[in-house]
Amino acid sequence: MTTVSSLSMRAGATALAGVLALGALAGCSDDGGDQAEADEPTTGTTATETTSAAPTDYLTVPSSVTLTEPGTDLGLTETASVAWEPRQDAVVALDLTVDRIDETSFKESFEGWVVTKQMKGQTPYFVHVTATNVGDAPVGGLLVPLYALAGGSSLYEPLDFRDETFEPCPGGKLPKRLKAGKTADLCFVYLLPQVEPFMSAAFDPVGDLAPITWTGEITEIEKPKKDEKKRAKKPGNEQRG
């Protein structure tokens, strides 16, 4: 599979320091422990705070949470209860809803960003997700381990935005502090080889368990008109609830 290491924003003749990192992998497992922001550690649910394990028995979560069975195939707008362990003493539990999957192009959505020759053989996708913290403690600063399933068995990581905000689709990181019961709107960006079109969004549980997937119609995004861009509200992942 093709790996794109970086993407930079162009300002005149100067490349800015805005960098997006993308990894591509097959049969991957969650590595969210490296993604917490240093100044805002994830809290999550600790093992001593929980009272029961979900029937799926792949992670211990609060008794009010029933994790969705690994291998479940959902449609768009359906919700799954998922969990992962960003570090040994914490479990993050979320209700995830994949609302929409958009296929776009570099011409339509990446104006002002440096597109390398390597990237031109790939297709960008935006995946819009609603995430609710169903744990019993705040969490924050984590890139949710939601992947793009392509080619039947290949899982592709989302872009991880670092220095610059990609306004058309800001990324899949949770807000710095998402309180228990609160909801955030996320937008994941994936670059897939043209020979492997997007099949499903996939949450990959721990170990060798089958991913939970969302499958549905992939819509084509349309480039907004200039006057609409001016009126559009700057996107983000502000929490609500």
TrEMBL record:
Query: Keyword Electron transport, does the record have it?
Result: no
Keywords of this entry:
Signal
Compositional bias segments (type: Acidic residues): 31-40
> Annotated region Disordered: where?
31-51, 220-241
What protein name applies here?
DUF4352 domain-containing protein
Organism taxonomic ancestry:
Bacteria, Bacillati, Actinomycetota, Actinomycetes, Propionibacteriales
Biased composition (Low complexity) is annotated at 41-51
- Organism per entry: Nocardioides silvaticus
The region annotated as signal peptide is: 1-26
